[in-house]
Every structure is written in C-alpha cells, then in structure tokens.
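Narrative of accomplishments. A recurring question from our advisory board has been how the design workflow behaves on a single, concrete structure rather than in aggregate. To address it, we present the structure tokens for one chain from the evaluation set, followed by the sequence designed for it. No filtering or post-editing was applied between the two.
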C-alpha cells in the first residue's frame, strides 16, 4: 500500500474516531476533560526521538523543546474539537510562553490545508506536519484508538504529566500546565 493510501486510511480512521468522540463528549469549557491524568508507565522518550517537518519544510527535532513544559497536540484542520481548542492554546502560549511553556501542533493533513488554517486563526506556536510516523508516535505515547485531538503534556524533566483524547478547555489546560511552570 502506498504512503498516500496509508495516510488516507489513517485520516479516515481519525475522522471516524473524532466524530464519535465529538458526538458523545462534553464540549470544551463544560467541565469535561476529567480523563486527563498523570500517565504512569508511558515514556516520553519516543517524543524526543522524533522529528517532523515544519510548514517551511525544515526538519524539526522535538528534542529541541526538552526542558520546557511541552504541550504536544496532534490535530487536523477538519477536526471540530481541534478547531475549538486551538484559540485557547494560542492564548495560553501568549500568557505562559515566557515562563517556559511551548505548544507544538502536529497536524495530520495536507500542508496547504494546515497552512491556510494556521494563518486564518493566527497560530503562534510551532506547527509540524505529521504523517504515518506521527500517528505511530501518538499511539506509542497513549493514543491507542487514534482519535483527534490528542494532547500530551510533558514536564521540564521529560516526563509525561497528562494526556487526553478529545478537546480541552482553556481552564482545564491551564490547571494542568500552570503547576508545571
């Protein structure tokens, strides 16, 4: 099977899982997100071993953000809960960036679609382009079902502090990251 076909199959599965999640989950800001918890036994090593191209086609190693509070968000422009949470991530990046917080988005879609959405909404943090390697990385660090969005918070010591499949409200994300700064 070609790389394009594999990506389409993965995207189709992610769409189905995201749609199912969106249909049954609480909306951001409504008290959902209780599934976020410290992740025991899941190593962040695969994160810091990975590299993805950015929107300028430059390879970006994730290890460059080791030592920061890293919020790694797997998302796609076609994913409704992804689109809902990103404006809050932009605000939190502005608020806490100088204190060592960095959001990194790993987009699972075509470069042009990702770039268009990022420009439209004004994303102020690094956006990387993921393909099958990103889907596999997300699985290794806890996204067993492949749903989107999938967010992992890694502390300054390189340990996974929290993860969640599904949209996160600003209040919930701030509650997770603020104590780590």
């Amino acid at each position: 099977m070609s790389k394009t076909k594999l990506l389409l199959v993965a995207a189709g599965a992610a769409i189905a899982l995201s749609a199912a999640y969106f249909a049954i989950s609480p909306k951001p800001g409504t008290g959902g997100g209780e599934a976020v918890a410290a992740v025991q036994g899941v190593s962040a090593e695969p994160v810091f071993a990975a590299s993805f191209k950015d929107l300028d086609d430059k390879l970006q190693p994730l290890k460059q953000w080791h030592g920061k509070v890293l919020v790694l968000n797997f998302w796609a422009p076609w994913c409704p809960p992804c689109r809902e949470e990103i404006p809050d991530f932009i605000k939190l990046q502005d608020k806490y960036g100088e204190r060592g917080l960095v959001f990194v988005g790993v987009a699972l879609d075509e470069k042009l679609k990702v770039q268009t959405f990022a420009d439209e909404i004004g994303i102020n943090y690094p956006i990387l382009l993921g393909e099958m390697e990103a889907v596999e990385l997300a699985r290794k660090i806890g996204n067993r079902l492949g749903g989107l969005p999938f967010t992992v918070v890694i502390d300054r010591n390189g340990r996974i502090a929290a993860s969640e499949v599904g949209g996160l409200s600003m209040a919930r994300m701030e509650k997770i990251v603020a104590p780590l700064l």
